[in-house]
């Protein structure tokens, strides 16, 4: 089937956008750094190793760990994970100081992600009023040192969207000229909107010759959309954490990013990431930090594939892609369990009941099905109906029909 | 304090965008329609009335109810809510048929939201292969009828982002010419991205003279960002539900929309919506449909204002706006309970401990505070520390200092 200008398998094809990296991006998985800053997170070394191993198997490109300078345990855990020989590269995230950079390199990481606050807010309240010249000088020294140790280096500003644009571009340009591999844009407070993201990243894309990493907090619910929009503007690396755990309400969730990319970049995602392992990873992290997977979590939320309204159920039964752009089976989720067309409710339609009648192996005419649908809707007005009760009603109606026929 | 071109109180000011309605929009609250399609939702009349009343008090402009044609109970509930005399206008959402439209008007609603599938997917699988000419003719008859009954009428396409653009604009133009008050754009499958939304809504803005309503599902995590971007492109009405409940993983949540709009449109939001009632409404709906408020829910998630990393805690203590663009007290949430600077962890910094020492009424030098911070971090490496334990450690350290001083 073809529709004007689009194909049925991927109606969001956008192949001509040369700036876009939606089909060519990398994931920096930060559950063991940003995620450790989540209120409930206290990872033992054993759990850190398990999470790092699962994420590497899943296919993320980088795993970012807490700054080894944070505590002796953080340092030992970092060293232990570096020694695992995982497929994913190991990064750590440090302040932009020589002490932190030296310790990080000593731990054996593949790369160091340095960060420094550039907004006036942060310069006043976190960095004791430093000016941009002093910040740039400090950054270049640290960058030079990390390169001399043979590690990858990323330079990120903090609170990028409340920083002065000229200051920001100047320091990124300086970092780019100093030979960093990536520069990072961080919406540390979670207030950027997609069009701001597109503008900033596209502008930055024209100013530096490095890769561009983006880090979006979710305070205003835009972390996933901002990540996607950044890729469209030329970003190359997305920061995620499992279920989005991090400071406050967290950052772009790994699973939600997968959901966002699948309709756009299905082949790329399936070739690179073992998305059927997503649920196991989410369940393990949720258990470890003692949270419930949100009911509305993309893909793995308990109702992510549940359809209830009559008109939806009818269309879904005809063709699942009518109302679903994600397929449960892509994620290793059973179609039976996860795509549950709800028909034991007052919102049901007769098409859903017809499908159930077929499943039960009963024979009825359309008029008869419409009649029993009316009975089910009537009952559902009075009480919450279980599947068993609805089936019993269908079977008893069918029995009456047979008896009437035999008389 | 002023930063180049922006003000500190609102660094995202964007006053010169004439197309934008981010400071002038209305909410169509659909918990009692879209929300009733949520897997777990079975609202009694009593609960429907309570939810409608709470939402009207909150300040939403419209409340949308399930199609009265869905079941006898749905019809009676609709009639009962229309008779409450709420400040919010009452809408119902129907298929684009004369039968549904007549029943809706008979129930006493202020307006009818009619919807029809326009994508090729839906026309094939839900509407039995109707062509656009037949769809348009049917729509115009229904619109004319609803207007003749003195009700507001909105005409929406379904699955708008997978519909042919020319078909879509043609039918919207016809509806606009027929005198509908609003046209609706619906991302029924939840796959639209912000830049697609901006393009479609801005194009539509140039084609019709009506208000524009938008309805975004959250399958790929973009519902909030898409709603915001639609307002920037000239949309006037946003569909929400409490906690986003709806088909599959739902639509744009009312609370998350508030979070998204506050940094941009604080004065407008506070003048119009009683945002301090948000938590009570969310708690009631969550209880009614038997779900937990997600841990990462904007504003009311248990960790929405919790800071843990040392460098964050330091800045927050100096100035809350450093890392927070939302203020818990705006939402009636206690600052003490909700803005909890986490310092009983290995990621803590000495600034957070200093603040706690002050709260405990103890006196220590900065060097002494750094020393006790080291002890706390050491302990936090070994076990999860409670606030009590950390306080005990601080007090015992302080006691030792005093004893040393007295000797």
TrEMBL record, chains A, B:
Highest taxon listed in the record's lineage: Eukaryota
Alphabetical list of SUPFAM superfamilies matching this protein: Aldolase
All copies of domain Pyruvate carboxyltransferase, residue ranges: 25-279
CC cofactor: Mg(2+); Mn(2+)
Protein keywords: Amino-acid biosynthesis, Lysine biosynthesis, Magnesium, Manganese, Metal-binding, Transferase
Gene Ontology MF terms: homocitrate synthase activity; metal ion binding
GO CC terms, sorted: mitochondrion
Example of a GO biological process term: lysine biosynthetic process via aminoadipic acid
InterPro entries: 2-IPM_HCS-like (IPR050073), AIPM/Hcit_synth_CS (IPR002034), Aldolase_TIM (IPR013785), DRE_TIM_HCS_fun_bact (IPR048253), Homocitrate_synth (IPR011872), LeuA/HCS_post-cat (IPR054691), PYR_CT (IPR000891)
Pathway named in the protein's UniProt entry: Amino-acid biosynthesis; L-lysine biosynthesis via AAA pathway; L-alpha-aminoadipate from 2-oxoglutarate: step 1/5
EC numbers, comma separated: 2.3.3.14
Top EC class, one word: transferase
Reaction(s) this enzyme catalyzes, per UniProt: acetyl-CoA + 2-oxoglutarate + H2O = (2R)-homocitrate + CoA + H(+)
Transmembrane segments: none
PROSITE patterns tied to this protein: AIPM_HOMOCIT_SYNTH_1, AIPM_HOMOCIT_SYNTH_2, PYR_CT
One Pfam family from the record: HMGL-like
NCBIfam families xrefs: LysS_fung_arch (TIGR02146)
Family indicated by similarity: Belongs to the alpha-IPM synthase/homocitrate synthase family. Homocitrate synthase LYS20/LYS21 subfamily.
Record's protein name: homocitrate synthase
């Amino acid at each position: 089937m073809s529709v004007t200008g689009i194909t049925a398998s991927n109606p969001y094809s956008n192949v001509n956008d040369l700036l876009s990296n939606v089909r060519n991006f990398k994931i920096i998985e930060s559950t063991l750094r940003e995620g450790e800053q989540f209120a409930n997170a206290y990872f033992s070394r054993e759990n850190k190793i398990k999470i790092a191993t699962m994420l590497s198997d899943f296919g993320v490109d980088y795993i970012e760990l807490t700054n080894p300078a944070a505590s002796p345990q953080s340092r030992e855990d970092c060293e232990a994970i570096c020694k695992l020989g995982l497929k994913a590269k190991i990064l750590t995230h440090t302040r932009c100081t020589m002490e932190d950079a030296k310790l990080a390199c000593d731990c054996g990481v593949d790369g160091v992600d340095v960060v420094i606050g550039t907004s006036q807010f942060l310069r006043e309240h976190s960095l004791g009023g430093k000016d941009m010249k002093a910040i740039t000088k400090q950054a270049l020294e640290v960058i030079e040192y990390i390169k001399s140790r043979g590690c990858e280096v990323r330079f990120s500003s903090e609170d990028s969207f409340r920083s002065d644009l000229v200051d920001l571009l100047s320091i990124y340009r300086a970092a780019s000229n100093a030979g960093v591999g990536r520069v990072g844009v961080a919406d540390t407070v979670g207030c950027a909107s997609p069009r701001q993201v597109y503008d900033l990243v596209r502008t930055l894309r024209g100013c530096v010759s490095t890769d561009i990493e983006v880090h979006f907090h979710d305070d205003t619910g835009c972390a996933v959309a901002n990540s996607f929009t950044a890729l469209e503007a030329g970003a190359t690396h997305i920061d995620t954490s499992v279920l989005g755990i991090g400071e406050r309400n967290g950052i772009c969730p790994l699973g939600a990013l997968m959901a966002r990319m699948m309709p756009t970049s299905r082949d790329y995602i399936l070739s690179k990431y073992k998305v059927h392992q997503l649920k196991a990873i989410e369940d393990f992290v949720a258990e470890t930090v003692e949270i419930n997977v949100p009911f509305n979590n993309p893909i793995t939320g308990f109702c992510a594939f549940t359809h209830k309204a009559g008109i939806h159920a009818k269309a879904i039964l005809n063709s699942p892609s009518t109302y679903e752009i994600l397929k449960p089976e892509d994620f290793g989720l059973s179609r039976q369990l996860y795509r549950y067309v709800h028909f034991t409710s007052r919102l049901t339609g007769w098409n859903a009941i017809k499908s159930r009648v077929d499943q039960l192996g009963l024979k009825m005419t359309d008029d008869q099905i419409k009649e029993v649908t009316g009975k089910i809707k009537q009952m559902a007005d009075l009480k919450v109906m279980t599947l068993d009760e609805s089936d019993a009603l269908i079977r008893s109606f069918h029995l009456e029909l047979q008896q009437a026929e035999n008389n």
